[in-house]
Amino acid sequence: MARRRQQQQQQQPPPTSFAASSAVLSAKATGIAASQDIGLMNQRQQRQEMHEEERKQIEVEARRMEQQKRQEEERKRTETEKAEVEDEYHHSSIERNKPRLPIIKEVLDHHGQTQARLSCFLSGIWSVNSSNNPDVFTVNFDDPTFKDVLKHPWDHPEWSMPSRINILLELLYWETKLSTTPDVFQFELFRCIHRIARKYEMIPPSLYLRDLVKEGNDQVWGGGYADIYQGRTVNGELACLKVLRVFTTLESSKQLFKEFSQEVLVWSQLEHPNILPFLGINMDLFPGRYCLVSPWCGHGSVMNYLSMHPEVDKMEIIKDILIGLQYLHTRNPPVVHGDLKGANILVSERRRCCLADFGLAGMNTLQTLSSASGNPRGSTRWMAPELFDYTITSRPSMSTDMYALGCTTLEIFTGAPPFSEIKHDAAVTFRVMNGFRPSRPAQGFTDGLWQAVERCWVHFNDRPSIQGFLYEFERIT
C-alpha cells in the first residue's frame, strides 16, 4: 500500500509544472489574439487602399470624360465655323456684286501729288481715272483676265510700270478693306498685295500719313527695338509714333522692308475694339527710319493701369484680352500675335484693353505678328517651351499664344511677370525646358480659373483653343 501511494505521488506533476502550462496557454492565446488584430488591421488597410485606388480611378475617368466633352464641344464649334466659312465662300461673289455706297479715293504718288482717282459704285468694280491719261478704264475683280493679272502683274506691260503698280496696290488695298465677307478670295487679294509690296518695295499709298507733327524732341519710351514718341495727326489728335531702332546696310534693307511691310499690311486689315487701331506709317519725321502710327493711349500698358487703379475688376481685363485674341485667331487665315504679355496690352481712353505691339515677322501659312524685341520668338518669361528648342523649326503659333495667355493671366493677377522669384532669364529658360511651370499664387485665383490657366501650359498638342478657353472662362465666371 505504501509503495502504491508513493508511485502515484511520483506520477502526479508538481504544482509548478501546472502553472507553467497555464502560462504557455495564456501566451498562445495572446499571440493568437494579436495575430487576429494584425490581420484585421491589414484587412482594413487593404480595404482603404482599394477604396483610395477606386477613388483615383473614378477621378481619372471623370477628368478623361470632361476632357472628351471639351474636345467634342470644340470639334462641334470648329465644324460650325468651317461650315460658316464655306457658306461665306459660296456666297462671296454674290456679296461682291451688291451695290455699295459711292466710294471715291485719290491715289497719291510719293511726292503727295494726285496720280489717279478711283471710283466704286458696285462691289468689285472700279473706275480708274489717271491724271496723265484722259481715258477712264474699268477694273473688275471678278473678271478672269484680271485675276490672271493679279497672279503676276509684272508680266503684263499695262500694269508693270511703277505708276500703274502704285494704282494697283491702292485698288487691291481698298477692295480687301471694303470686302463684306472675309473669304478665300479676300485672302488672295491680300497675298497679292504682299507679293507686290515685297517685289517693288512699295506700300499702298493710303497707308502713308502726311502732315504728321512730332510733339517735342525727346522720346517718351524706348523698347527693345523701337523708340516711342508722341505726335499729332492733321486733325489734332494725339498719336503714338513707334520708330524702329534699326539701322541697316544696303544689302539688308530689302529684308527689313519685307518684314516691315508684313507688319503694316496685316495690322492695317485688323479692326476690332480690343485691337489697337493702325493709323498708318510716316517716312518724313525720322528720315531713314520706319515709323508706325497708332492712337495715343494715355493710360499706358495694362500693368501700368492696374498699378494706378488696383480696384479695377481683373476678370473684365482678362475678358477683353480673350475677346481680342479670339478675333485674331478666328480670322481667315488666323493671325498669331507672337508676343502676348502685359506690356503689349494697352488701355484706351475708353478704358478698354487693346492688344498691341505687333512686331516684325514673316508670313507663312498663318499671318504672324511677333515682336522682335530681344528674342525673335517672343519674350522669354512668356515663351512656350517648344520655342526654346532650336533643334526644331519652331515659330510662334496659336498654341504658343495660348501658353503666353496663361502667363499673362498670371501676370495681371499678381502684378509681376512669370517666375518673378528668378532673377535671370537664362534660369527661367532652363526651368521651363525641364518641365517647371509657375506656382499658384496664395491669393487671387479660384480653383476653376487656375485649372484653366494650367491647361495653357501643357504640351502644345493638348492646349485649349482660344474658343475653348473663353468657353471655360465664361463657365467659371
TrEMBL record:
Region: Disordered, residue numbers: 1-96
GO terms for MF: ATP binding; protein kinase activity
Compositional bias annotation for Basic and acidic residues: 46-96
Protein name in the entry: Kinase-like protein
Ranges of residues in domain Protein kinase: 214-474
Highest taxon above the source species: Eukaryota
SUPFAM superfamilies: Protein kinase-like (PK-like) (SSF56112)
Residues that span the membrane, as ranges: none
Organism in which the protein naturally occurs: Gymnopus androsaceus JB14
InterPro entries hit by this protein: Kinase-like_dom_sf, MAP_kinase_kinase_kinase, Prot_kinase_dom, Ser-Thr/Tyr_kinase_cat_dom, Ser/Thr_kinase_AS
PANTHER family hit by this protein: MAP KINASE KINASE KINASE SSK2-RELATED-RELATED, MAPKK KINASE
One Gene Ontology biological process: MAPK cascade
Keywords, comma-separated and alphabetical: ATP-binding, Kinase, Nucleotide-binding, Transferase
Lineage: Eukaryota, Fungi, Dikarya, Basidiomycota, Agaricomycotina
